[in-house]
Amino acid sequence: MSQPDPSFIRLQGISKHFGDFVAVDNVDLDIGRGELFSILGGSGCGKTTLLRMLAGFETPTAGRIEIDGVDVTTVPPYERPVNMMFQSYAVFPHMSVEKNIAYGLRKERAPAAQIAKRVDEMLELVQLADFRRRKPVQLSGGQQQRVALARALIKRPKVLLLDEPLAALDKKLREHTQFELMNIQDELGITFVVVTHDQEEAMTLSSRIAVMHKGRFLQVGKPKEIYEYPCNRFVADFIGTINTFEGTVTAVDDDGIAIESTDAGTSITALGQHDVAVGKPACIAVRPEKVFIGRDEPSDSSDIRMRGVVDDLAYLGNLSLYRVRLASGKIILVSQQNRQRSAERYVEWEDEIWVSWRPRSSIVLVEDR
Ligand SMILES: Nc1ncnc2c1ncn2[C@@H]1O[C@H](COP(=O)(O)OP(=O)(O)OP(=O)(O)O)[C@@H](O)[C@H]1O
Ligand SMILES: [Mg+2]
C-alpha cells in the first residue's frame, strides 16, 4: 500500500504567460497520493495549460513542480512518472483494441510475455476483453474512451492526467463511465488529476476540486465544502443553483450577521463570523433545497421568512421545483422533495405561500477575489 502523502504533487507559484497573456496565474496546489482531484472551470480558464505543465509539455513561466518529492519543473514529459489522456483522446484508428493498449509498452520494447500479460489485465480492467480484436471504428464512444484509458494506464504511471475524459460521451454513458473511472482509480490507487468544465461530473468523481477562473484558483476543497461553503459569488454560481440577496449590513456579532435586503424586502441573517462591517453592502445566498415552502406561516421565529406567490412549478417525480415571486418582485427558486403521495393540498400555481429557511443555511458571499 502506498503511504498517505498530502503533497505528492506540489505546485508552487506556477504561472504561464503566452506573450502578454496570463493563462495560469501564480497557482499553489498540493495533491495527495491516490487522490482523484478535479480542476473545474469554464472554457479558456487555463485548465489544459495547467495540466500540460504537470505533464511537461509546457514549461512554466514561473514556479516549481514537484512529484513524489522530486523537482520535475524542467524534466521532459517522458521522464516524468506521469501519463496524460488528451482532451481529444486519440486512439489509433488502424490498430485493434489490443494493439492500441499495448502501444506504450511496445514502444519501450518490453518483453512480449510481459506485454501480453499487461494487455490482458488492462482489457479486464476496462471490460473490453471481448472486443480485443476490433478496430476503434467498431466501438461506441464510451468503449473508445476506455481503450484510451487502458492505453494511458498500461505503463502504470504514478499520476494520470485526464483532460475532459468524458466530454465526448452522452449523458447516460458519461454517468456510467464516471463510476467506472472511480472504480479503476480506486483499484489501482493511481493519483488522477481530471480536468472538466462539468460541475456535476466534478462533484461525483472527486475527492477534491479546484475551481479555476481566469488562470487562478478561487477555491480548493471537498465537493461538499465547495457546494455548502462557496468562498465567493463566482464559485457559488458556478456550482449548482443559488438564490442571492443583496443588502446592507445592519448587525455583526460573534454569532452571525444580519443584512437589510431590498431584494427580499426584509432582514436576512446568517450564522458564523464574516468579514463584513455595519453599513456596508453584502450578499447573502441560499440554495433552493434549503428553502421550505408552505401555506402556513413558519412557527420558528428565528427562521428567515418571506411571503410570495408561486409563479411557476415543475413536478419532477422525486422533487418539485418552484419559482416564487416575492412582493419585491424578486424570484426565488425552491426545490422540495416529494415525500408524501397525497397528504394535504399541494402548493399550486398562483398560491400565496411562505418561503423560509434557517439562518444556518444562509451563505455570506464576498466579492470575487
Ligand atoms: N500556445 C498558446 N499560445 C497563446 N495562447 C494560448 C496558448 N495555449 C493556450 N492559450 C490561451 O490560454 C488560455 C487558456 O487555455 P487552456 O487551453 O488552458 O483553456 P482550458 O481551460 O483548457 O479551456 P477549454 O475548457 O476550452 O479546453 C486561453 O485563453 C487560450 O487561448
Ligand atoms: Mg482545455
Layout of helices and strands:
Elements: E1 9-18, E2 21-31, E3 36-41, H1 47-55, E4 62-67, E5 70-71, E6 82-85, H2 97-107, H3 112-125, H4 141-153, E7 159-163, H5 171-188, E8 191-196, H6 199-205, E9 208-213, E10 216-221, H7 223-228, H8 233-238, E11 243-252, E12 256-261, E13 266-271, E14 281-286, E15 292-294, E16 304-315, E17 319-326, E18 331-337, E19 352-357, E20 363-365
Parallel strand pairs: 3-8, 3-9, 6-7, 7-8
Antiparallel strand pairs: 1-2, 1-4, 4-5, 9-10, 11-12, 11-14, 12-13, 14-20, 15-19, 16-17, 16-19, 17-18
Helix pairs in contact: 2-3, 2-4, 3-4
Bound molecules: adenosine-5'-triphosphate (ATP) and magnesium ion (MG).
Features of this protein?
369 residues, alpha+beta, Rossmann fold, OB fold (Dihydrolipoamide Acetyltransferase, E2P), 2 domains, six-stranded mixed β-sheet, five-stranded antiparallel β-sheet, elongated, binds adenosine-5'-triphosphate, binds magnesium ion
What gross morphology would you assign? elongated
- Could you say how many structural domains there are in total? 2
Beta-strand fraction estimate: 25-35%
User: What is the subunit organization of this protein?
Assistant: single chain
What is the terminal separation in angstroms? 40 Å
Which CATH C-level class of the largest domain is it?
A: Alpha Beta
Going by CATH, what is the homologous superfamily of the largest domain? P-loop containing nucleotide triphosphate hydrolases
Nearest-integer average pLDDT: 91
Number of strands: 20
The ligands found in this model are: adenosine-5'-triphosphate, magnesium ion
Query: Which fold name fills CATH's third level, the topology of the largest domain?
Result: Rossmann fold
Low-confidence stretches: none
Which structural class is indicated by helix and strand composition?
Answer: alpha+beta
